[in-house]
Design a protein that fits this description.
seven-stranded mixed beta sheet; binds flavin-adenine dinucleotide; FAD/NAD(P)-binding domain; 30% helix; single chain; 21 strands; 13 helices; Polyamine Oxidase, Chain A, domain 2; 459 residues; globular
Length: 459
Protein backbone atom coordinates (compact mmCIF):
# COMPACT_ATOMS: atom_id res chain seq x y z
CA UNK A 1 0.00 0.00 0.00
CA UNK A 2 1.18 3.51 -0.76
CA UNK A 3 1.26 6.09 1.97
CA UNK A 4 -0.47 9.31 0.93
CA UNK A 5 1.42 12.52 1.68
CA UNK A 6 -0.48 14.13 4.56
CA UNK A 7 0.00 17.56 2.94
CA UNK A 8 -2.19 16.42 0.05
CA UNK A 9 -5.14 15.60 2.25
CA UNK A 10 -8.27 17.72 1.98
CA UNK A 11 -8.68 20.38 4.63
CA UNK A 12 -5.12 19.97 5.86
CA UNK A 13 -2.76 22.90 6.43
CA UNK A 14 -0.19 21.50 8.90
CA UNK A 15 1.75 18.25 8.61
CA UNK A 16 -0.50 15.54 10.04
CA UNK A 17 0.24 12.53 12.13
CA UNK A 18 -1.49 9.54 10.55
CA UNK A 19 -3.16 6.91 12.65
CA UNK A 20 -5.75 4.22 11.94
CA UNK A 21 -8.21 5.34 14.63
CA UNK A 22 -8.34 8.63 16.53
CA UNK A 23 -10.51 8.67 19.64
CA UNK A 24 -11.76 12.05 20.85
CA UNK A 25 -12.03 12.12 24.66
CA UNK A 26 -10.13 10.21 27.35
CA UNK A 27 -13.12 9.51 29.54
CA UNK A 28 -13.74 5.87 30.41
CA UNK A 29 -15.58 5.27 27.09
CA UNK A 30 -12.69 6.58 25.00
CA UNK A 31 -10.07 4.74 27.06
CA UNK A 32 -11.92 1.44 26.83
CA UNK A 33 -12.42 1.87 23.08
CA UNK A 34 -8.72 2.65 22.61
CA UNK A 35 -7.67 -0.31 24.73
CA UNK A 36 -9.90 -2.71 22.80
CA UNK A 37 -8.58 -1.46 19.44
CA UNK A 38 -4.97 -1.55 20.65
CA UNK A 39 -5.49 -5.13 21.85
CA UNK A 40 -6.61 -6.01 18.31
CA UNK A 41 -3.37 -4.58 16.96
CA UNK A 42 -5.01 -1.44 15.55
CA UNK A 43 -2.99 1.78 15.64
CA UNK A 44 -4.93 4.17 17.88
CA UNK A 45 -4.49 7.54 19.52
CA UNK A 46 -6.68 9.35 22.08
CA UNK A 47 -7.01 13.14 21.95
CA UNK A 48 -8.09 14.70 25.24
CA UNK A 49 -8.70 18.40 25.83
CA UNK A 50 -7.86 18.31 29.53
CA UNK A 51 -4.49 17.67 31.16
CA UNK A 52 -5.85 14.53 32.82
CA UNK A 53 -7.69 11.35 31.87
CA UNK A 54 -11.07 10.30 33.24
CA UNK A 55 -13.50 13.01 32.13
CA UNK A 56 -16.49 12.67 34.46
CA UNK A 57 -14.43 10.30 36.65
CA UNK A 58 -11.79 11.85 38.88
CA UNK A 59 -10.17 10.54 42.06
CA UNK A 60 -8.08 12.48 44.60
CA UNK A 61 -5.91 11.39 47.52
CA UNK A 62 -6.91 12.79 50.93
CA UNK A 63 -4.60 14.12 53.64
CA UNK A 64 -5.15 10.80 55.42
CA UNK A 65 -4.03 8.79 52.39
CA UNK A 66 -7.49 7.53 51.43
CA UNK A 67 -8.96 8.05 47.95
CA UNK A 68 -12.14 9.94 47.14
CA UNK A 69 -14.07 10.33 43.91
CA UNK A 70 -15.21 13.78 42.83
CA UNK A 71 -16.94 12.34 39.78
CA UNK A 72 -18.63 9.01 39.06
CA UNK A 73 -18.09 6.52 41.87
CA UNK A 74 -20.90 4.06 42.55
CA UNK A 75 -21.05 0.62 40.99
CA UNK A 76 -24.74 -0.04 40.48
CA UNK A 77 -26.21 -3.46 41.09
CA UNK A 78 -25.63 -5.52 37.92
CA UNK A 79 -23.00 -3.13 36.51
CA UNK A 80 -20.82 -6.12 35.72
CA UNK A 81 -18.43 -4.46 33.24
CA UNK A 82 -17.52 -1.85 35.85
CA UNK A 83 -17.13 -4.63 38.47
CA UNK A 84 -14.91 -6.63 36.12
CA UNK A 85 -12.71 -3.60 35.43
CA UNK A 86 -12.34 -2.92 39.16
CA UNK A 87 -11.39 -6.58 39.69
CA UNK A 88 -8.97 -6.57 36.75
CA UNK A 89 -7.00 -3.70 38.31
CA UNK A 90 -7.00 -5.46 41.69
CA UNK A 91 -8.99 -2.73 43.44
CA UNK A 92 -11.20 -3.32 46.48
CA UNK A 93 -14.95 -3.06 46.02
CA UNK A 94 -17.07 -2.59 49.13
CA UNK A 95 -20.82 -2.34 49.76
CA UNK A 96 -22.27 1.00 50.80
CA UNK A 97 -22.86 1.53 54.53
CA UNK A 98 -26.48 2.45 54.24
CA UNK A 99 -29.71 2.50 56.26
CA UNK A 100 -33.00 0.99 55.02
CA UNK A 101 -34.21 4.52 54.19
CA UNK A 102 -32.29 7.78 54.20
CA UNK A 103 -33.26 10.37 56.79
CA UNK A 104 -35.28 13.26 55.33
CA UNK A 105 -34.33 16.49 57.05
CA UNK A 106 -36.24 19.77 56.71
CA UNK A 107 -34.56 22.56 58.71
CA UNK A 108 -34.14 21.16 62.21
CA UNK A 109 -36.89 18.56 61.73
CA UNK A 110 -36.62 14.96 60.57
CA UNK A 111 -39.64 14.03 58.48
CA UNK A 112 -41.52 11.06 59.87
CA UNK A 113 -41.78 8.03 57.60
CA UNK A 114 -45.54 7.84 58.16
CA UNK A 115 -46.46 11.53 58.30
CA UNK A 116 -48.62 13.44 55.79
CA UNK A 117 -45.67 14.64 53.64
CA UNK A 118 -44.18 11.14 53.43
CA UNK A 119 -47.60 9.75 52.45
CA UNK A 120 -47.99 12.33 49.66
CA UNK A 121 -44.50 11.60 48.36
CA UNK A 122 -45.15 7.86 48.42
CA UNK A 123 -48.33 8.32 46.34
CA UNK A 124 -46.50 10.51 43.80
CA UNK A 125 -43.58 8.07 43.49
CA UNK A 126 -46.05 5.24 42.97
CA UNK A 127 -47.89 7.24 40.31
CA UNK A 128 -44.58 7.91 38.52
CA UNK A 129 -43.60 4.26 38.69
CA UNK A 130 -46.96 3.24 37.19
CA UNK A 131 -46.70 5.92 34.48
CA UNK A 132 -43.32 4.55 33.38
CA UNK A 133 -44.85 1.10 33.00
CA UNK A 134 -48.05 2.13 31.24
CA UNK A 135 -46.37 4.32 28.67
CA UNK A 136 -45.76 8.02 28.65
CA UNK A 137 -48.16 10.61 27.25
CA UNK A 138 -46.49 12.74 24.55
CA UNK A 139 -48.16 15.83 26.01
CA UNK A 140 -45.76 15.60 28.92
CA UNK A 141 -42.85 16.36 26.54
CA UNK A 142 -43.58 20.06 26.91
CA UNK A 143 -44.62 20.03 30.56
CA UNK A 144 -41.75 20.74 32.93
CA UNK A 145 -41.16 18.75 36.10
CA UNK A 146 -41.29 22.10 37.91
CA UNK A 147 -44.80 22.88 36.67
CA UNK A 148 -45.99 19.29 37.33
CA UNK A 149 -44.76 19.50 40.93
CA UNK A 150 -46.80 22.65 41.56
CA UNK A 151 -49.91 20.45 41.72
CA UNK A 152 -48.51 18.36 44.57
CA UNK A 153 -50.18 19.36 47.85
CA UNK A 154 -47.93 20.49 50.72
CA UNK A 155 -44.77 22.60 50.59
CA UNK A 156 -42.63 19.95 52.26
CA UNK A 157 -43.74 17.11 49.98
CA UNK A 158 -43.13 19.31 46.93
CA UNK A 159 -39.68 20.30 48.14
CA UNK A 160 -38.78 16.69 48.88
CA UNK A 161 -39.75 15.61 45.37
CA UNK A 162 -37.90 18.58 43.90
CA UNK A 163 -34.66 17.71 45.72
CA UNK A 164 -35.08 14.02 44.89
CA UNK A 165 -35.51 14.61 41.14
CA UNK A 166 -32.83 17.26 41.07
CA UNK A 167 -30.15 15.22 42.86
CA UNK A 168 -30.96 12.06 40.92
CA UNK A 169 -30.85 13.74 37.48
CA UNK A 170 -28.90 17.06 37.88
CA UNK A 171 -31.54 18.69 35.67
CA UNK A 172 -32.93 22.22 35.85
CA UNK A 173 -36.50 21.21 36.61
CA UNK A 174 -38.00 24.09 34.62
CA UNK A 175 -36.01 22.96 31.52
CA UNK A 176 -36.63 19.25 32.01
CA UNK A 177 -39.88 17.68 30.88
CA UNK A 178 -41.92 15.27 32.95
CA UNK A 179 -41.75 12.86 30.01
CA UNK A 180 -37.94 13.06 29.85
CA UNK A 181 -37.74 12.31 33.57
CA UNK A 182 -40.13 9.37 33.42
CA UNK A 183 -38.42 8.10 30.28
CA UNK A 184 -35.12 8.15 32.18
CA UNK A 185 -36.71 6.29 35.10
CA UNK A 186 -38.14 3.66 32.73
CA UNK A 187 -34.81 3.26 30.95
CA UNK A 188 -32.93 2.81 34.24
CA UNK A 189 -35.28 0.04 35.41
CA UNK A 190 -37.59 2.04 37.70
CA UNK A 191 -37.38 4.49 40.57
CA UNK A 192 -36.37 1.92 43.17
CA UNK A 193 -33.34 0.86 41.14
CA UNK A 194 -32.41 4.43 40.31
CA UNK A 195 -32.69 5.82 43.83
CA UNK A 196 -31.53 2.88 45.96
CA UNK A 197 -28.15 2.29 47.49
CA UNK A 198 -28.03 -1.44 48.36
CA UNK A 199 -29.30 -3.38 45.33
CA UNK A 200 -29.70 -0.17 43.28
CA UNK A 201 -27.61 2.29 41.32
CA UNK A 202 -25.59 3.30 44.41
CA UNK A 203 -24.74 -0.22 45.52
CA UNK A 204 -20.98 -0.29 46.05
CA UNK A 205 -17.75 1.67 45.80
CA UNK A 206 -14.10 1.27 44.83
CA UNK A 207 -11.85 1.91 47.85
CA UNK A 208 -8.98 3.18 45.67
CA UNK A 209 -11.40 5.49 43.81
CA UNK A 210 -13.30 4.69 40.63
CA UNK A 211 -11.24 7.42 38.96
CA UNK A 212 -8.19 5.24 39.52
CA UNK A 213 -9.50 2.86 36.85
CA UNK A 214 -9.43 5.62 34.23
CA UNK A 215 -5.92 6.64 35.34
CA UNK A 216 -4.73 3.05 35.03
CA UNK A 217 -6.30 2.58 31.60
CA UNK A 218 -4.62 5.78 30.37
CA UNK A 219 -1.24 4.73 31.79
CA UNK A 220 -1.53 1.30 30.12
CA UNK A 221 -2.11 3.00 26.76
CA UNK A 222 1.51 4.03 27.10
CA UNK A 223 1.80 7.40 25.40
CA UNK A 224 -1.21 6.92 23.12
CA UNK A 225 -3.23 9.50 25.06
CA UNK A 226 -2.40 13.07 24.00
CA UNK A 227 -3.46 15.58 26.66
CA UNK A 228 -4.17 19.33 26.19
CA UNK A 229 -5.46 18.37 22.79
CA UNK A 230 -8.97 19.80 22.36
CA UNK A 231 -10.35 18.87 18.95
CA UNK A 232 -11.87 21.90 17.26
CA UNK A 233 -12.58 20.80 13.69
CA UNK A 234 -13.10 17.69 11.62
CA UNK A 235 -13.01 17.27 7.81
CA UNK A 236 -14.27 13.95 6.58
CA UNK A 237 -14.00 12.40 3.13
CA UNK A 238 -14.27 8.99 1.51
CA UNK A 239 -11.00 7.64 2.88
CA UNK A 240 -10.91 9.06 6.37
CA UNK A 241 -11.08 12.09 8.61
CA UNK A 242 -8.67 14.96 9.24
CA UNK A 243 -8.97 16.46 12.68
CA UNK A 244 -7.54 19.69 13.99
CA UNK A 245 -6.69 19.87 17.67
CA UNK A 246 -4.75 22.03 20.09
CA UNK A 247 -1.83 19.59 19.75
CA UNK A 248 -1.81 19.52 15.95
CA UNK A 249 -3.49 17.85 13.01
CA UNK A 250 -4.23 14.15 12.72
CA UNK A 251 -5.36 12.02 9.83
CA UNK A 252 -7.29 8.85 10.66
CA UNK A 253 -9.26 6.23 8.76
CA UNK A 254 -11.83 6.31 11.55
CA UNK A 255 -12.63 8.77 14.31
CA UNK A 256 -14.55 7.95 17.47
CA UNK A 257 -16.26 10.85 19.24
CA UNK A 258 -16.86 9.93 22.89
CA UNK A 259 -17.65 13.49 23.98
CA UNK A 260 -21.26 13.88 25.23
CA UNK A 261 -23.56 15.46 22.59
CA UNK A 262 -23.79 19.05 23.96
CA UNK A 263 -19.98 19.27 24.24
CA UNK A 264 -19.47 17.56 20.87
CA UNK A 265 -21.46 20.47 19.38
CA UNK A 266 -18.32 22.58 19.86
CA UNK A 267 -16.47 20.61 17.17
CA UNK A 268 -16.92 22.09 13.69
CA UNK A 269 -17.61 19.57 10.92
CA UNK A 270 -16.94 19.77 7.18
CA UNK A 271 -19.17 18.81 5.47
CA UNK A 272 -21.80 19.66 8.09
CA UNK A 273 -23.27 16.80 10.11
CA UNK A 274 -26.70 15.43 9.16
CA UNK A 275 -29.66 17.34 10.59
CA UNK A 276 -30.58 14.58 13.08
CA UNK A 277 -27.08 14.58 14.57
CA UNK A 278 -27.03 18.37 14.92
CA UNK A 279 -30.48 18.25 16.52
CA UNK A 280 -29.23 15.78 19.14
CA UNK A 281 -26.23 18.00 19.94
CA UNK A 282 -28.26 21.23 19.95
CA UNK A 283 -31.22 20.01 22.03
CA UNK A 284 -29.29 18.54 24.94
CA UNK A 285 -27.45 20.19 27.82
CA UNK A 286 -25.13 18.93 30.53
CA UNK A 287 -26.63 18.77 34.03
CA UNK A 288 -25.26 20.99 36.80
CA UNK A 289 -23.75 19.27 39.80
CA UNK A 290 -21.52 20.10 42.73
CA UNK A 291 -19.91 17.30 44.70
CA UNK A 292 -17.92 17.51 47.94
CA UNK A 293 -16.31 14.99 50.25
CA UNK A 294 -15.47 15.83 53.87
CA UNK A 295 -12.78 13.60 55.39
CA UNK A 296 -12.54 12.61 59.09
CA UNK A 297 -10.21 10.34 61.08
CA UNK A 298 -13.04 7.82 61.35
CA UNK A 299 -16.77 7.67 60.56
CA UNK A 300 -17.62 8.79 64.12
CA UNK A 301 -21.31 9.32 63.30
CA UNK A 302 -21.77 5.55 63.03
CA UNK A 303 -21.71 5.36 66.84
CA UNK A 304 -25.14 7.03 66.80
CA UNK A 305 -26.59 5.76 63.54
CA UNK A 306 -26.36 6.55 59.87
CA UNK A 307 -25.31 9.72 58.06
CA UNK A 308 -27.28 9.15 54.85
CA UNK A 309 -29.88 11.86 54.37
CA UNK A 310 -31.75 14.05 51.97
CA UNK A 311 -31.68 17.66 53.17
CA UNK A 312 -34.44 19.99 52.04
CA UNK A 313 -32.47 23.06 53.12
CA UNK A 314 -31.31 25.70 50.64
CA UNK A 315 -29.38 24.32 48.85
CA UNK A 316 -31.05 20.91 48.92
CA UNK A 317 -28.52 18.11 49.19
CA UNK A 318 -28.02 14.38 49.42
CA UNK A 319 -25.50 13.15 52.00
CA UNK A 320 -23.90 9.68 51.87
CA UNK A 321 -21.46 7.80 54.07
CA UNK A 322 -18.89 6.61 51.52
CA UNK A 323 -16.22 5.53 54.04
CA UNK A 324 -14.39 2.34 53.17
CA UNK A 325 -14.31 -0.39 55.85
CA UNK A 326 -11.56 0.32 58.39
CA UNK A 327 -10.66 3.62 56.70
CA UNK A 328 -11.15 7.30 57.45
CA UNK A 329 -14.66 8.79 57.52
CA UNK A 330 -15.89 10.13 54.17
CA UNK A 331 -19.09 12.15 53.95
CA UNK A 332 -20.13 12.66 50.35
CA UNK A 333 -22.45 15.56 49.43
CA UNK A 334 -24.29 16.09 46.12
CA UNK A 335 -26.06 19.33 45.17
CA UNK A 336 -27.63 19.64 41.74
CA UNK A 337 -29.33 21.88 39.21
CA UNK A 338 -29.59 25.66 39.77
CA UNK A 339 -28.86 25.17 43.48
CA UNK A 340 -25.44 23.78 42.51
CA UNK A 341 -24.76 26.82 40.31
CA UNK A 342 -25.91 29.02 43.21
CA UNK A 343 -22.74 27.96 45.07
CA UNK A 344 -20.42 29.20 42.32
CA UNK A 345 -20.15 32.76 43.61
CA UNK A 346 -19.29 31.73 47.18
CA UNK A 347 -15.72 31.24 48.35
CA UNK A 348 -14.61 27.66 49.02
CA UNK A 349 -14.68 28.45 52.78
CA UNK A 350 -18.22 29.80 52.59
CA UNK A 351 -19.42 26.73 50.64
CA UNK A 352 -17.84 24.42 53.17
CA UNK A 353 -19.33 26.34 56.14
CA UNK A 354 -22.80 26.33 54.54
CA UNK A 355 -22.77 22.61 53.75
CA UNK A 356 -21.13 21.32 56.92
CA UNK A 357 -23.28 23.66 59.04
CA UNK A 358 -26.41 21.95 57.67
CA UNK A 359 -24.98 18.47 58.27
CA UNK A 360 -23.67 19.36 61.76
CA UNK A 361 -27.24 20.07 62.87
CA UNK A 362 -27.83 16.34 62.34
CA UNK A 363 -24.51 14.65 63.10
CA UNK A 364 -22.97 16.98 65.67
CA UNK A 365 -20.38 19.75 65.71
CA UNK A 366 -17.43 17.37 65.04
CA UNK A 367 -18.60 17.50 61.41
CA UNK A 368 -17.45 21.13 61.27
CA UNK A 369 -13.75 20.26 61.55
CA UNK A 370 -12.90 17.74 58.83
CA UNK A 371 -9.31 16.67 58.22
CA UNK A 372 -9.82 17.28 54.53
CA UNK A 373 -12.30 18.82 52.08
CA UNK A 374 -12.52 17.98 48.38
CA UNK A 375 -15.00 19.67 46.05
CA UNK A 376 -15.79 20.12 42.38
CA UNK A 377 -18.43 22.05 40.44
CA UNK A 378 -18.74 19.95 37.30
CA UNK A 379 -20.77 22.52 35.39
CA UNK A 380 -17.71 24.78 35.65
CA UNK A 381 -15.38 22.22 34.09
CA UNK A 382 -14.81 23.73 30.65
CA UNK A 383 -14.00 20.40 29.02
CA UNK A 384 -16.58 18.11 30.64
CA UNK A 385 -19.33 20.74 30.77
CA UNK A 386 -21.28 19.18 33.65
CA UNK A 387 -22.80 15.94 34.80
CA UNK A 388 -23.97 13.39 35.56
CA UNK A 389 -25.08 13.22 31.96
CA UNK A 390 -26.48 15.03 28.91
CA UNK A 391 -30.17 15.88 29.32
CA UNK A 392 -32.87 16.63 26.72
CA UNK A 393 -34.08 20.23 26.56
CA UNK A 394 -37.80 20.46 27.29
CA UNK A 395 -39.91 19.87 24.17
CA UNK A 396 -37.31 17.62 22.51
CA UNK A 397 -36.84 13.88 22.70
CA UNK A 398 -33.63 13.45 20.66
CA UNK A 399 -31.60 13.21 23.88
CA UNK A 400 -33.56 10.33 25.43
CA UNK A 401 -31.40 7.30 26.19
CA UNK A 402 -29.84 5.72 24.30
CA UNK A 403 -28.55 8.63 22.20
CA UNK A 404 -28.19 7.83 18.51
CA UNK A 405 -24.78 6.36 17.63
CA UNK A 406 -25.25 5.77 13.89
CA UNK A 407 -21.90 6.49 12.18
CA UNK A 408 -21.62 9.57 9.97
CA UNK A 409 -19.21 8.52 7.24
CA UNK A 410 -15.99 7.60 9.01
CA UNK A 411 -17.04 9.21 12.28
CA UNK A 412 -18.34 6.83 14.94
CA UNK A 413 -19.94 7.75 18.24
CA UNK A 414 -19.62 6.41 21.77
CA UNK A 415 -19.87 7.73 25.33
CA UNK A 416 -22.16 6.79 28.16
CA UNK A 417 -25.21 8.50 26.62
CA UNK A 418 -25.15 6.05 23.68
CA UNK A 419 -25.21 2.82 25.73
CA UNK A 420 -28.07 0.40 25.23
CA UNK A 421 -28.03 -0.43 28.94
CA UNK A 422 -27.15 1.78 31.94
CA UNK A 423 -26.64 4.86 29.77
CA UNK A 424 -25.51 7.84 31.85
CA UNK A 425 -23.52 5.57 34.15
CA UNK A 426 -19.91 4.38 34.06
CA UNK A 427 -21.22 0.94 33.10
CA UNK A 428 -22.88 2.47 30.03
CA UNK A 429 -19.69 4.31 29.09
CA UNK A 430 -17.71 1.05 29.23
CA UNK A 431 -20.37 -0.73 27.15
CA UNK A 432 -20.24 2.02 24.52
CA UNK A 433 -16.44 1.86 24.34
CA UNK A 434 -16.53 -1.89 23.78
CA UNK A 435 -19.33 -1.61 21.20
CA UNK A 436 -17.64 1.08 19.11
CA UNK A 437 -14.31 -0.78 19.13
CA UNK A 438 -16.06 -3.91 17.83
CA UNK A 439 -17.94 -1.86 15.23
CA UNK A 440 -14.74 -0.34 13.86
CA UNK A 441 -12.62 -3.49 14.06
CA UNK A 442 -15.26 -5.34 12.02
CA UNK A 443 -15.36 -2.64 9.34
CA UNK A 444 -11.58 -2.41 9.13
CA UNK A 445 -11.13 -6.13 8.84
CA UNK A 446 -13.95 -6.38 6.25
CA UNK A 447 -12.50 -3.61 4.07
CA UNK A 448 -8.88 -4.69 4.38
CA UNK A 449 -9.07 -8.42 4.81
CA UNK A 450 -7.32 -9.27 8.04
CA UNK A 451 -4.94 -6.37 7.69
CA UNK A 452 -6.85 -4.09 10.07
CA UNK A 453 -3.63 -2.57 11.33
CA UNK A 454 -2.56 -0.86 8.11
CA UNK A 455 -2.27 2.87 7.71
CA UNK A 456 -5.61 4.59 7.08
CA UNK A 457 -4.59 7.16 4.52
CA UNK A 458 -3.59 4.69 1.82
CA UNK A 459 -6.10 4.73 -0.97
C1 LIG B 1 -20.50 14.29 39.96
C2 LIG B 1 -20.78 13.05 39.16
C3 LIG B 1 -21.18 11.90 39.81
C4 LIG B 1 -21.44 10.74 39.08
N1 LIG B 1 -21.74 9.60 39.77
C5 LIG B 1 -21.78 8.43 39.11
C6 LIG B 1 -21.80 7.21 39.84
O1 LIG B 1 -21.73 7.21 41.08
N2 LIG B 1 -21.84 6.04 39.12
C7 LIG B 1 -21.85 6.02 37.76
O2 LIG B 1 -21.89 4.93 37.17
N3 LIG B 1 -21.80 7.18 37.04
C8 LIG B 1 -21.73 8.37 37.68
N4 LIG B 1 -21.59 9.54 37.00
C9 LIG B 1 -21.62 9.48 35.51
C10 LIG B 1 -20.32 8.91 34.95
O3 LIG B 1 -19.23 9.53 35.55
C11 LIG B 1 -20.30 9.12 33.44
O4 LIG B 1 -21.41 8.49 32.85
C12 LIG B 1 -19.06 8.55 32.74
O5 LIG B 1 -17.88 8.83 33.44
C13 LIG B 1 -19.01 9.12 31.32
O6 LIG B 1 -17.86 8.66 30.64
P1 LIG B 1 -17.65 9.01 29.10
O7 LIG B 1 -16.33 8.50 28.72
O8 LIG B 1 -18.85 8.59 28.34
O9 LIG B 1 -17.68 10.62 29.03
P2 LIG B 1 -16.69 11.68 29.71
O10 LIG B 1 -16.18 11.17 30.99
O11 LIG B 1 -17.44 12.98 29.73
O12 LIG B 1 -15.48 11.78 28.69
C14 LIG B 1 -15.44 12.66 27.61
C15 LIG B 1 -14.04 13.25 27.53
O13 LIG B 1 -13.95 14.06 26.37
C16 LIG B 1 -13.15 15.19 26.67
N5 LIG B 1 -13.47 16.20 25.66
C17 LIG B 1 -14.57 17.01 25.59
N6 LIG B 1 -14.53 17.77 24.47
C18 LIG B 1 -13.38 17.42 23.81
C19 LIG B 1 -12.77 17.85 22.59
N7 LIG B 1 -13.35 18.77 21.81
N8 LIG B 1 -11.58 17.31 22.23
C20 LIG B 1 -10.98 16.37 23.01
N9 LIG B 1 -11.51 15.94 24.17
C21 LIG B 1 -12.70 16.44 24.57
C22 LIG B 1 -13.53 15.55 28.09
O14 LIG B 1 -12.52 16.34 28.71
C23 LIG B 1 -13.67 14.16 28.71
O15 LIG B 1 -12.45 13.73 29.26
C24 LIG B 1 -21.32 10.73 37.67
C25 LIG B 1 -20.91 11.90 37.01
C26 LIG B 1 -20.63 13.04 37.74
C27 LIG B 1 -20.15 14.28 37.02
Amino acid sequence: MTQQNPHDLPGLRDPARTVTVAVIGAGIAGLIAARELHRRGIDVIVLESAARAGGRMMAETTALGSRVDLGGQWIGHGHHRFEDLAAEFGTTVFAMHTPKRPKIVDGDKTIKNFGASAATVTVVLLAWEIATRLGLPRAQTTRSVQSWLRRVPGRRARRLLEVLVSVSTTADLDRYSMRAFLEMVRFQGGLTTMLSTAGGAQDSLVAEGAGTLAERLAADLDGRVVFNSAVTASHRDETGVTIHSASGTYRAAKVIVTVPPPMAALIEHTPPLPVARNLLQDTTYMGSVYKAIAVYDRPFWRENGHAESLMLSDPGMAVFDTSAPGGPGHLCVLIAGPEARGLDDLTADARRALILGAIAAQLGSDVLIPRGWHEKSWHQDRYVGGGYTALPVIGHDEGYFPACAAPVGNIHWAGSETASEHAGYIEGAIESGERVAREIAEILSATRGDDATSSPTSS
